Amino acid sequence: MNYSYPKEKIEIYLTEKIDHAAKAFFENSGYKIVEISGALEGKELEEVINTAHVLGVRSRSKVTEAALKNAKRLLCVGCYTVGTDQVDLVSSKTHGIPVFNAPHSSTRSVAELTLACVISLARRLGDQNIQMHSGRWEKSAAGAFEIRDKSIGIVGYGHIGQQVGLLAEAFGLNVHFYDLDKKLPLGRAKSCETLNELLQKSDFVSFHVPSNESTKKMVSEDEIRAMRKGSFLINHSRGQVIDIPSLVAGIKSGHVGGAALDVYPVEPQTNSGEFTSELVGLPNVILTPHVGGSTKEAQKNIAVEVSRSLVDFLETGNTQGAVNFPNVNLPAVHNSHRILHIHMNVPGVLSEVNKIVSEVGANIDAQYLSTNADVGYLIMDVNKELSEEVKDRIAVLPQTIKARILF
Question: Of the CATH numbers 3.40.50.1240, 3.40.50.740, 3.30.70.260, 3.30.420.140, which one belongs to the domain with range 337-407?
Fold first, then answer.
């Protein structure tokens, strides 16, 4: 297949030590120019964005509106992470640049860390580890118990929450969950109608929710008070979910038996940055540096999942899984040319496009339009003989953001 952007000329930049499986995936797919660098900032990042067709980032390279303003060649961005906070999604959308991530590739890694923390909190392993490193031998069964027949409450019953539930059940825990959306229970898990109901039933409460307005300070003073006395809180989701002063007060009063956190409201931007928190030094509190998805397996899965999405967009125009873009997936039609049209979502654009097709005398073999609040994305397969004229006339429509022939 002949692409308007030949594979050998596509420039792909991967930053921040993205797993080597990403580079291998692109090269195995026929792409030749794959550059690898560390984290990029400021003018250095802007220069790359101005020349790259594909940009892959992790969490430290910030793709801002300023960085995108001269992104004339950039076709798509891959966030080799679960989240997409490092990219200005609104600006990239209005520039016609879809952004892809890997929301599920670290599911197992996060779930395993959660169960490790459940056991560690039940046995006070964090405190005992510190004592041993300090040369203190304090063997005692006080405050230590098995997790079998205890209850875990899972807040957010998506991919990670469900995995946590299945692993917890295998350990003999009773599983409850709460989710804003109706979810089918797996195994013997039981749904709770409210968050407070779950808090009152659970010896361990584990959060696996997205970052949005409804989850901001989801746990504050009232929720801490609603928890069972001596129960434990685990947050491996987003730092804004827990009001830290309320949690600190709950631990100091003895109402909360301990906590394990992997995410925080404010996190250092680099490994050399200083970490500060009111939780430091509190008893039976396990603090980890946002490592839920930091396993070899998860990083490889992320590398392959994001790279596959980027290659699929490059080769078919499909945006299935893009976080800032209408999701369009249209199988290719043999012996047709594919036109991609990104435009402002205003009434009448499709009518204008079809009018052009009619005036040119072209034939539409397949067509798929999807929109969100700001942007419309049209994939259209037309007969080869007239595709160039159709594309040229669509490109000058006042609503057009980008228009090109893919193949």
Answer: 3.30.70.260
Which sign does the torsion angle of CA 379, 383, 388, 390 carry? negative
pLDDT digits (tens, 9 = 90+) for 285-321: 999 999 999 999 999 999 999 999 999 999 999 999 9
Which helix (H) or strand (E) is 206 found in, with range? Answer: strand 204-207
Cα separation, 180 vs 155, in Å, equals 9
Give the model's pLDDT for residue 1: 64
Q: What is the rounded CA–CA span in Å between residue 404 and residue 214?
A: 39
User: E strands of 45-95, at which residues?
Assistant: 54-57, 76-79
Q: What is the pLDDT of residues 335-344, one digit of tens each?
A: 999 999 999 9
Residues with Cβ within 8 Å of 392's Cβ and at least 6 positions away in sequence, in order, are none
Q: Classify domain 7-106+296-324 by CATH number.
A: 3.40.50.720
Domain boundaries along the sequence of the chain: 7-106+296-324, 107-287, 337-407
Annotated catalytic residue within 267, 278, 297, 385:
267
Q: Write the class of the CATH domain 107-287.
A: alpha beta
Is position 221 annotated as part of the catalytic site? no
Would residue 35 show up in a list of annotated catalytic residues for this protein? no
Catalytic residue among 104, 159, 225, 290: 290
